[in-house]
Amino acid sequence: MTERLRIGVPSKGRLSDLAIDLLQQAGLQFRRQSRSLFARVRGLEVDLTFLRTDDIPTLCGEGAIDMGITGSDLVAEAAADVQERMRLGVGRCRLAICVPEESPVKSPADLDGKAVATSFPRVTDAYFKQHGATTHLVSLSGSVEVMIQLGVAEGIVDLVETGSTLVANRLRILEEIGQYETVLIQNDRVRDPETAERLVRRLEGVVIARDYSLLEYNVPRVQLAEAEKLTPGFKSPTVNSLEDPEWCAVRAMVRSDRVIDTMEQLEAMGASAIIQTTIANCRL
Ligand code: PRP
How far is ligand 1, taken at its centre, from the CA of residue 160, in Å? Predict the structure, then answer.
């Protein structure tokens, strides 16, 4: 008998809410009892295990869980033996070498021989070595941004999302060394590969649906070719005839972040009845 698939889910913090939301939207029904580490999924051979986000890559690599939701920054730092199955389209951030605003440092090589504080010692060390610099790494689990003020380091390597932490601490980015986001990982010996594939397809449906909207509009037939260039759809747009032979109706998926611009451009070329609909889920 195949064992139930085990998925590691962040137990707390922002990523925990995002992951739970995503799994529920993908149709996984479960109830997490307070303090419990496990939750059984109803109607699917899957168990969820709630873990610290930064332990998920290692525990997946070790086979304690088959798949997990975590940050690709943590996967890189753990150098765990796992593969990235899917980007989940949330939690995007950058890892950057930062120095005080007024620092004379111009390149990573200028930090040769200096102290650098970070929660990402492995990634940081590899980067500086590649750039011919040997730094004294101060490895910390958080609050890295105050280490320059405390006199612990001359530079830091930290995650930057909006940049407000940098501004608050009067730091500037010297160089970006990585781009990361929330990902689904898996090891190469999953207990139940068939259920794992089913889960991936379900999550793909939700992730793509979140990125796209459905746009419908009517357009004069003479403008159809131009309109199709604006809305090429995922594969190709659906075009239907209207009662008036000079007009047609078009339906296409459009990236949600492009919808407003696209609507304006369509309107400018004579399209009308332009409607955006949110997609809850899809299979393409
Ligand atoms: C992260 C990171 C930065 C901050 C960046 O810290 O370490 O400090 O977010 O975000 P921003 O560019 O939007 O300001 P987090 O809040 O995860 O806590 P930590 O300091 O304990 O790592």
Answer: 7
